[in-house]
Design brief:
It contains no helices and ten strands. It has strands at 2-6, 14-21, 26-29, 32-35, 41-43, 49-53, 56-61, 82-89, 93-104, 109-110.
């Protein structure tokens, strides 16, 4: 599905989308791969990323990188999850794509 995120009002307010995943998988993105460890955070600066555990996979993106705040004041922490952040400053007008499917190790992608 697609998630259209929009804001108006105050300018230059930090905003983020946090994608929390069960640890133990791998995050594949345009320029690398990282292991998803509990209490770790990765920033998706651009493009798309696919997180997969076993045969289950979810793809999110496109990424954005407007600030480097690891945790915004008032946001919930995720000590038992692997978190991927997409960051903005207001105003925001972003169409995020979320796709689920099966991970193909042979094709190295979501199918």
């Amino acid at each position: 599905f697609d998630l259209h995120v929009q804001s108006e009002g105050y300018d230059r307010v930090p905003f983020q989308i946090a994608c929390d995943f069960v640890p133990g998988g791998e995050l594949d993105f345009d320029s690398g791969i990282v292991r998803g460890q509990a209490a770790e955070v990765a920033f998706l600066k651009s493009g798309y990323a696919t997180y997969h555990v076993g045969d289950d996979a979810i793809s999110v993106g496109p990424g954005a990188y407007a600030h480097r705040f690891w945790a915004l004041r008032g946001s919930e922490s995720a000590p038992t999850a692997f978190r991927v952040l997409i960051t903005f400053t207001t105003p925001v007008d972003h169409m995020m794509e979320i796709r689920c499917g099966t991970w193909s190790a042979a094709e190295d992608k979501l199918v």
